[in-house]
Amino acid sequence: MEGTNPVNKKLAAALSGGAVLVLALSGCGGDDSSDKLNSWAKEVCDEVQPQAKKIEAANTSIQKQTSDNSTPADVQKTDSQAFQDMSDAYKAIGAAVSKAGAPDVEEGKKKQTDAVKELNGISTSYADLKKQVDALDTKDQGKFADGLKDIATELDKLGQSGNVALNKLQEGEVGKAMAKQESCKSAAGSPSATNG
Fold it and tell me: Please, what's the b/e burial string for 102-129 (b: 16 or more CB within 10 A of its CB; e: otherwise)?
């Protein structure tokens, strides 16, 4: 199964690292959270779910493109669209967290502000990657592969940069409240992602 584009495989691998960001948005079980916190969690989770699906779909489209003998032009088109979708999705999640207001926990306001800032930062990073992909020379396979390599490196960094603010937002009570929401459970996909 030798695709003509091993570099895109690297891209796909790097990308799957980045996609866990949103799926981190479903904490572990337990239910001693307040009604106020539960309604906050529901609002955020309901908004996150469609975006998590969008990110997963973008991820899948890049993975798919790696298994075919795709031309650079095909890869460029797919990756560009995927990065655009991811950028939009993270921005929408940032907006959802912003709109929901601060969770009813200690330092809730700071946690919320930091998480929104982080989500918007991730959104911008994906928008930048889209620009990079769009600028690649698809007529020269060698140059194109080199360009993709750089993008894969950036993606890797993005995946590893960790979502410190998001994790902080979901510590303790907030995570418990989110874990109870059906929409957050389903956003996490596989059962292993929700064990805590």
Answer: bbbbeebeebbbbbbebbbebbebbbeb
Beta carbons within 8 Å of 26's beta carbon, 6+ residues apart: 45, 178, 179, 184, 185, 187, 188, 193, 194
pTM of the predicted protein model: 0.83
Per the listing, tokens 């908004």 go with 47
Whole-number Å distance between alpha carbons of 168 and 129: 26
Tell me the pLDDT tens digit for each residue of 93-122: 999 999 999 999 999 999 999 999 999 999
